[in-house]
Design brief:
The complex is a heterodimer of chains A (285) and B (377). Chain A has 285 residues and is mainly alpha-helical. Helix content of chain A is 68%, strand content 0%. Chain A folds into 2 domains: 6-60, no CATH class; 66-273, MetI-like fold (Orthogonal Bundle), CATH 1.10.3720. Chain A contains 11 helices and no strands. In chain A, helix 9 (200-225) runs antiparallel to helix 11. The two termini of chain A are 23 Å apart. Chain B is elongated, with a radius of gyration of 24 Å. By secondary structure, chain B is of the alpha+beta class. The two termini of chain B are 20 Å apart. In chain B, strand 4 (57-62) and strand 5 (65-66) form a beta hairpin. In chain B, the strands form 4 sheets. Chain B has a 6-stranded mixed β-sheet, with helices on both faces. Classes of the chains: A mainly alpha (285), B alpha+beta (377). Chain A binds chain B through residues 173, 175-176, 178-185, 189, 193-194, 197-198, 277-284, and chain B through 50-52, 71-73, 77-79, 81-89, 98-99, 101-103, 130-134, 136, 139, 146, 150, 163.
Chain lengths: 285, 377
């Protein structure tokens, strides 16, 4: 059916209103990206020209080359960011998948309170707990390691991941577990052979949000718990473009775009698993 | 072997008693149907036999062995769920093979078993497809296939046909009956559909509010319901109930008075009934045109023409409503036009004030040749 459903039909002025609304919000969201990209194309001198021009004259991708030269460790920062986020995501998934299954399927004393506690933890941002965490890290002697950036990242991302995945798993019909149980499968066998494959879209969503979340939040832990440049992730590394005298804005912008590229690629690949209708035919609905 | 015994099996949810002491014996190879209105505890009972729900009190024995604390797989049962419960990401082959994979069976043996099950269920051509591509009937057959490969002692079916449309349900009923003959396994089948119960069962267990209302062969329940509940539940449309007064109890039966007429109903009377109010039950299909042992007039308010039959809902002698009469398809009746009808004393059921039936003087061998043979064994 190429015709829109009756429910999706709008009058012309409604359509104009809808698109005007979309345009307004998209402008706010996308304008910084557009401006950032344009800045990365401009030679540094043009950035402070008056009157300011948005469209670069004789713009070039020169900054995308020079950025590697002026900050030689930049590739390492990208790798660090990528590495930290990947490890965080892997660890979160390993812990959260069985936990979410347990919360979704088993009744046990205190499960409601635990879930509430997870939500409460989410209300503290990591920043509030930085000082205690710092002391903890120092007494363990793990400051200035990957470990110091990864562990708090995992800890703060687990609660929302459990909530997300638990909701998804609760939608998987309980009869599937029961059928597997009747056939003699253990809980872990059921989780591995039945639940995991069906929960794949949910797990992908959790993986993506965790990866993005880790990419965004690692900045704060890296800044506090790490002073070694070789472990610095991308957001900290970007500071290298802040010189004593001036900020190399065009290279900074170029580096920002290059830095988020790996994350974009990962998300692009993960979203292929976001197939809907995976449970079709499981039970009669 | 697949002998099942339930000894005063009880189930509590908190203090609420869902099942009030069920005693039942199911013989090896028997097809037993649990039937009852929703909420009567029939599914709970099945899940307790399966080992999915815990038994609060009483014993469940399979082949003489107490299985209360065993997991389903050790009980030797297999279950088919109402919602099929197929694994959507696996092919039909893998779905059927699932219990064998759990057992870690060798690949060649596994393949032979799955293919055998698929042949029995006519799924040979579908083995490499995913459940999402199958029709409702095929999905249900896959679910049955998953039960067959385990070669269980007892098959448990939890309303397996209620998600299918009417035509498919009739086909699957026949296939299940054939399958039962082929496998010669004990089958316990839960349904709320009395047609399924009547057509497939060797024995029907009617449950009402957590108790067994009656156990018996399909025609036994139809002809000799033990109480008003079973009388009303078995048979479609429902049996009509009329208030009567007991006049006398004699050797030929119980004489009753109904709106000034008297008739002798051939049932086993007992002392202390005379003068008591009784309930006379008459099935819609036993009502005929013209006067018989008891006569009355009906003025139908609704008439349903089903082709083979005409079903009339009416007030009797101007009183009450929803008295139901099933008349021949060619019956010349119209709404709001009074017609005389009658019923024969031999077709009537009588129930005392507690709803317990007075046993009809009817040899079941006369109505069910199968029961005659069963009695001879």
């Amino acid at each position: 059916m190429s015709q829109p459903l009756m429910v999706n039909r709008y009058r012309w002025y409604e359509l104009i209103g809808i698109y005007a609304g979309i345009l307004a919000f998209l402008t706010f969201i996308l304008a910084p990206f557009v401006e950032g990209f344009l800045v990365s194309l401009k030679p540094l001198s043009q950035l402070f020209s008056s009157p300011y021009r948005f469209i670069p004259q004789n713009g070039s991708f020169e900054a995308y080359r020079t950025m590697w030269v002026s900050v030689p460790g930049f590739a390492r920062y990208i790798f660090n960011s990528f590495f930290i986020s990947t490890i965080v995501t892997a660890v979160v998934l390993m812990l959260v998948v069985p936990a979410a299954y347990a919360f979704a399927r088993f009744k046990f004393r205190g499960s409601g309170h635990l879930l509430g506690a997870f939500l409460a933890v989410n209300m503290f941002s990591g920043a509030v707990l930085l000082i205690p965490l710092f002391r903890l890290m120092r007494s363990f002697g793990v400051l200035n390691t990957y470990f110091a950036i990864i562990v708090p990242g995992v800890a703060f991302l687990i609660p929302s991941a459990i909530w997300l995945l638990r909701t998804y798993m609760m939608r998987i019909p309980r009869e599937l577990d029961e059928a597997a149980f009747v056939d003699g499968a253990s809980h872990f066998y059921t989780l591995r052979r039945v639940i995991l494959p069906i929960a794949m879209p949910g797990i992908t969503v959790v993986a993506i949000t965790t990866f993005i979340g880790s990419y965004a939040q690692q900045f704060i832990y890296a800044l506090t718990f790490n002073s070694k440049t070789e472990y610095a992730p991308l957001p900290v590394g970007l500071f290298a473009y802040f010189g004593r005298q001036e900020v190399i804005w065009n290279e900074l912008m170029a580096a920002s775009f290059v830095g988020i590229a790996p994350a974009m690629i990962v998300i692009f690949f993960l979203q292929r698993y976001l197939v809907s209708g995976l449970t079709a035919g499981a039970v009669k609905q | 072997m697949g002998q099942l015994n339930l000894n005063t099996v009880q189930k509590f949810y908190g203090t609420f008693e869902v099942l009030k002491g069920i005693d039942l014996e199911v013989k090896n190879g028997e097809f037993v149907v649990f039937v009852g209105p929703s909420g009567c505890g029939k599914s709970t009972l099945l899940r307790m036999i399966a080992g999915l729900d815990e038994t609060s009190a009483g014993d469940i024995l399979i082949d003489g062995k107490r299985v209360n604390d065993l997991p389903p797989v050790k009980r030797g049962i297999a279950m088919v769920f109402q919602s099929y419960a197929l694994y959507p990401h696996m092919t039909v082959f893998e779905n059927i093979a699932f219990p064998l994979r759990v057992e870690k069976m060798q690949e060649d043996k596994l393949k032979a078993k799955v293919e055998n099950a698929a042949r029995i269920l006519h799924l040979d051509q579908r083995l490499q497809q995913k459940p999402g591509l199958l029709s409702g009937g095929q999905r249900q057959r896959v679910a049955i296939g998953r039960a067959i490969v385990r070669e269980p002692k007892i098959f448990l079916f939890d309303e397996p046909l209620s998600n299918l449309d009417a035509a498919l349900r009739a086909d699957m009923r026949i296939e299940l009956a054939k399958l039962h003959r082929q496998l010669k396994a004990t089958m316990i089948y839960v349904t709320h559909d009395q047609v399924e119960a009547m057509t497939m069962a060797d024995r029907i267990v009617v449950l009402n509010a957590g108790e067994i209302a009656q156990t018996g062969a399909p025609l036994e329940l139809y002809h000799k319901p033990a109480n008003m509940f079973v009388a009303g539940f078995i048979g479609n449309p429902k049996m009509n109930m009329l208030p009567v007064i007991c006049k006398s109890v004699g050797a030929t039966g119980v004489e009753i008075e109904f709106q000034g007429q008297t008739a002798t109903i051939p049932v086993e009377g007992r002392a202390g009934l005379v003068g008591q109010p009784l309930t006379l039950g008459i099935r819609p299909e036993h009502i005929q045109f013209g006067a018989a042992d008891l006569a009355m007039t009906i003025a139908p308010s609704v008439i349903e023409h089903l082709g083979a039959h005409t079903v009339a809902y009416a007030a009797v002698n101007g009183e009450g409503e929803n008295f139901c009469a099933m008349l021949p398809g060619s019956a010349a009746i119209r709404t709001e036009e009074t017609v005389p009808v009658g019923l024969n004393a031999a077709d009537c059921h009588l129930f005392d004030a507690h709803g317990i039936a007075l046993e009809r003087r009817l040899e079941l061998g006369d109505v069910d040749i199968g029961l005659l043979n069963a009695g001879a064994v």
